[in-house]
Design brief:
With 207 residues, this protein is mainly alpha-helical. Helices cover 46% and strands 9% of the residues. The protein folds into 2 domains: 34-137, no CATH class; 139-207, no CATH class. It has helices at 13-31, 34-60, 70-80, 83-91, 99-119, 126-134, and strands at residues 143-144, 149-150, 163-165, 177-179, 183-184, 190-191, 199-200, 205-206. A hairpin with a 5-residue loop joins strand 5 and strand 6 (190-191). Bound molecules: 2-acetamido-2-deoxy-beta-D-glucopyranose. 2-acetamido-2-deoxy-beta-D-glucopyranose (NAG) binds next to loops.
Length: 207
Amino acid sequence: MGPGPASRPGRPPLAAALCAALLMLLLLPPALGAGDRRRLACSTCRGIADRFNQGLADTAKKNFGGGNTAWEEKTLSKYESSEIRLVEIIENLCDSSNFECNNMVEEHEEHIEKWWFKLKKKYPDLFKWFCIETIEVCCPAGTYGPDCLACRGGSERPCHGNGHCDGDGTRGGDGSCSCNKEYTGDFCLDCSNGYFSTLRNETHSVC
Ligand SMILES: *[C@@H]1O[C@H](CO)[C@@H](O)[C@H](O)[C@H]1NC(C)=O
């Protein structure tokens, strides 16, 4: 008897890629806590909205090379809100290596299309409409966490303007303050050792 089969059938590349993707999905959650994943989701979404706006700018001046005929002008104005333009913009939303980004665009492409064709006149701010209000991965500035609660010190001036609110603008974090070095305390109203107060009332403090 000779040795066993000389060669096993090779694994099809698609199956290998799917296995790799599945493995990544299985490995990803333990590596990042829920709060970190929420922060990442928001920054991914912010990146998508930024790239979308960049794509809008990049395709805005598209024309047929000057001296457009009437027919071309008509075509151009159609292009402005066309599916072709949308597809061009969507193609450039994510770097191919950015798994989170590609995943988010794929998962929510229908929302983006709906916005493009029906809602962008009424809700011109894609970040706000998409990331905050529709897929709910970000919060308005000065708020944090799953329910977008106000940061310590209030959403107008988180941490009384003397520090950073944990999770500010994302669905993660706990709203606590990391104070600038001159300040301390839960609300960043107290002066650190070696710093002295020059102004202090209920809402403002200068050290
Ligand atoms: C606290 O001080 C700030 C800065 O001088 C001032 O603008 C604000 O009106 C003051 N607030 C109160 C409640 O006195």
